[in-house]
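Why do we care about 3D structure at all? Because function follows from shape, and shape follows, mostly, from sequence. That is the central idea of this module. The next example makes it concrete: a single protein chain, its amino acid sequence, and then its structure expressed as C-alpha cells.
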Amino acid sequence: MDYISLGKSNLLVSRTAFGTENLGKTASEEEAFSLVKKAFEAGVNFFDTSALTPESEKRLGEAIKAQKIRSDVVIATKSVAKDSSHLERDVEKSIQNLETDFIDLYQIERSKPFFDGESDSEILETLKKMKNDGIIRHFGIVTESMEVAQSTLLGWKPWETVQFPFNMLCALEVEQLVSEFARNDIGFIAMRPLCGGVVSNIPLALGYLRQFENVVPVWGAMNDEELSQILYFTENPPLVDEKFLEEVSVQRAFFN
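And the structure:
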C-alpha cells in the first residue's frame, strides 16, 4: 500500500481510502466489522464516513474500537451544517457514534462558496476553535460545485483538504484543478472514482487516478467481493502506457 501526506494537513493516509457510508446497509454488524478489518489488514488506514449516515458511523466506530486500531487510522466524517450550532451538534454526535475522542478530518459539505456572512464566519470560527481544542485535528470542504472548489484556492485558504468528484470521465478542467490543489498544498480527495457506477472497469479507473500523486480516491464497497477487487487492483495496478491512455480516451469519447 502506498501512503501520501494529505496536503498541508500532513495526515499520512493510504492512497486507497475506504468510503464507509454504506456500512449501515450491510447485512449485519459482523459483515461491516469484517470489511473494515479486511481493508485495514490490507494497509488501508483512511476511512471516510458522514454524519448523514449515523448507522455507518456507529459500525465503523465499533469495528475500529474492537480491533484496537484507533491510533493507526485516520477517520474523516462530514456535515451539511449551515450554522455553528448545527455544526457543534453534528460533531458531538459523530464523536459519540464513532466512539472516539477526536476526529482526524472534519469536512463541511457545501454547494455555494463561503463568504463573509455571519453564519459562514461562525462556522469557520467554530472549526478553528474545535481544532485548537483538539476535538478535530483538521478540516476541509466537500463539494460537487466547481465554483466552490475553485473558491478554496482564492484569498485566505483555511481549508486543508477538498473532496470533489474526480474520475477518468471528468473534463480536463478538473485535472487542471487537481494540479492547482497540489501547488497550493491542499489535499485532494476524489469522490466517485467510478462516476457513480457508470465506470465498471476498476483497473482502468484506478490506473487513471494513480497518475495524480496528490489524489486519494474514496472507494465504496458494499460487500467482500467489491472490496476484494479494489484491494487487488490497488496492489496490482495496470501499467499506464500508450495503450492504457488510448483506452481511457475511448471511454471518455463513449460516455461524453
